[in-house]
């Protein structure tokens, strides 16, 4: 006599053999709808930012990222969902930096004019929030069990990257306060101030400038180049650290 399996029983998903197998998971109907909603929301968010709708664009974009995280979480642990969300989000962010470098090196635009594709998102507050969010995400992955030399390097890099943007945001607030005191409207240049590294940065004006000049670009690179290197380093380290993803596939984070 044939026994019927209860409708509530769901076949366990086949574990991915490689980290990239989790980028587009093979979910059930609900997971598929979440992926579709993610694509639609991200597209709408990018379009909104492209046409200057700052707050609505960012909100819809974050909702899309959240839908993607939920889709991955249906076939893995929350820690795996966070890891894959960081990988996808940073990859998208890297495209924006590539566009900026193209504007700088191919179109020969000045650094202050190399604003990327999403000009509305090229704000110090957005950059600071993004880098702090990545740093927090990496810290949460550590708490979930991500380990290894690349993971430690990623943690250090994300801390330094976030520090650069916190310094830039503090400078932006300082300059905006002075402009307000003088009765000047926003001019845009306050969004493109030098940071710690690169041309006219804090390090270039410090007593260590002559020593640091031995490292190409450390005290003389344009701002878009500095942030391209920051982001590329973070992306490479994130992918390298993600090779230990199986340690996040089960509670406790022990690598099989």
Report the total helices. 7
Percent helix, as a range, is 55-70%
The description of the largest β-sheet is: none
Structural category: mainly alpha
Please indicate the percent range of residues in DSSP E strands (runs of 2 or more).
under 5%
Total domains: 2
Q: What string gives the helices and strands in order?
A: HHHHHHH
Q: What is the mean pLDDT? A: 79
Strand segment count: 0
Shape: globular
Measured distance between first and last alpha carbons: 40 Å
Please supply descriptive tags for the structure shown above.
single chain; mainly alpha; 57% helix; globular
Architecture overview:
Helix 5 (149-181) packs antiparallel against helix 7. The chain folds into 2 domains: 20-75; 77-248. It is mainly α and 256 residues long. The protein is 57% helix and 0% strand. It has helices spanning 29-50, 54-73, 78-105, 124-144, 149-181, 209-212, 223-241. The longest helix has 33 residues, at 149-181. It is built from 7 helices and no strands. The protein is globular, with a radius of gyration of 21 Å.
């Amino acid at each position: 006599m044939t026994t019927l399996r209860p409708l509530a029983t769901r076949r366990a998903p086949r574990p991915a053999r490689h980290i990239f197998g989790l980028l587009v998971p093979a979910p059930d109907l609900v997971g598929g709808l979440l992926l579709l909603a993610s694509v639609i929301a991200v597209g709408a968010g990018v379009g909104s930012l492209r046409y200057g709708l700052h707050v609505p664009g960012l909100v819809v974009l974050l909702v899309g990222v959240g839908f993607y995280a939920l889709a991955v979480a249906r076939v893995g642990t929350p820690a795996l969902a966070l890891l894959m969300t960081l990988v996808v989000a940073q990859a998208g962010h890297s495209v924006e930096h590539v566009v900026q470098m193209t504007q700088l090196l191919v179109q020969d635009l000045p650094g202050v004019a190399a604003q990327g594709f999403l000009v509305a998102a090229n704000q110090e507050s957005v950059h600071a929030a993004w880098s702090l969010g990545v740093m927090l995400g990496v810290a949460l992955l550590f708490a979930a069990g991500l380990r290894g030399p690349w993971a430690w390097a990623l943690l250090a890099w994300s801390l330094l990257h976030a520090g650069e943007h916190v310094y830039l945001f503090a400078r932006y607030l300082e300059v905006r306060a002075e402009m307000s005191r003088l009765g000047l409207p926003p001019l845009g240049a306050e969004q493109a101030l030098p940071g710690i590294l690169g041309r006219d940065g804090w390090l270039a004006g410090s007593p260590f400038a002559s020593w640091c000049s031995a490292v190409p670009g450390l005290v003389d690179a344009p701002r878009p180049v500095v942030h391209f290197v920051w982001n590329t380093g973070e992306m490479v380290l994130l992918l390298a650290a993600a090779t230990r993803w199986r340690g996040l596939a089960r509670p406790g984070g022990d690598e099989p």
